[in-house]
Design a protein that fits this description.
single chain, about 300 residues, mainly alpha, two-stranded parallel sheet, 14 helices, about 60% helix
Length: about 300
Amino acid sequence: MATRVASGDTVLISQQRLAELNRRRDAAGWLQVAGHGGLIVVSAAIWLQPSWPWVLRLPTLLLLGWGLAFGFCAMHECGHRTAFAGRAVNDAVAWWAGVLSFYNADFYRRYHQWHHRYTNQPGLDPELEEGHASRSRAAYLLELSGVSWWLGKLRSHWRGLRGDFSGCPYIPPEAAEAVRDSIRRQALVYAVLLLVSLPAGNGLLFWGWLLPLLVGQPLLRFVLMAEHGGCATNDDGLQNTRTTLTLAPLRWLMWNMPFHCEHHLYPSLPFHALGAAHRLIAPRLVHVAPGYLSVHRQWWR
């Protein structure tokens, strides 16, 4: 599933070192899940405490929103089945992380495999179907707001509920029923939360999930736009993906996905090994940004 490296390139990481980096550690996975889950629980507990002053609660709304939105990164990592040694654990964590971040893990896993196979190649990479923010400043701002993402997710979930995967070559006929059932189970979770929320009259689903996710989504868009935007539209893994050097807290929240070129070149590497991989191959990378702001400043200009 890895994007190729241009022909003629020497080996970037030796087989022995790669075997060491590929070792999956349950302890690292559970520590990351505990930290990410703890951020969501603690920030939700403060944000949903009406007796606390707004000046203290509003920052936790941001933290809760970021924790929920960046559940995508947990789903992504576990979707590769690299966060934990066992497949069942990876799949379970991925599915619930998808529920929190409004993705469906079973649909996304197949969609994402196609993205790795045809990274940034027009007409092939499904991520490019979602539009390019570089077309204009208005398109850039629309993408950054998350509006396009929400509309796309509502549309794809609705089609998935009906089992309609036409135009989705990454969902083969033999997988369609399982993906449809997974989306239906996810919709059932949302329905139960809504039924619990409405009689209580506390709007828990809105205040505790939907509003924070709306608030947190723009930051996720901000970082994901930099992964391939402005990179080469060919199948050379050193040219079509960008690694971004960013602050440690954001790198932690993203499960080390800012090391994105490393991830695409070696998708079997668990998240905790990507930093070491970066140190080994950094001199060979074409796109290494000193931060997300630098990427976005260039696009805005």
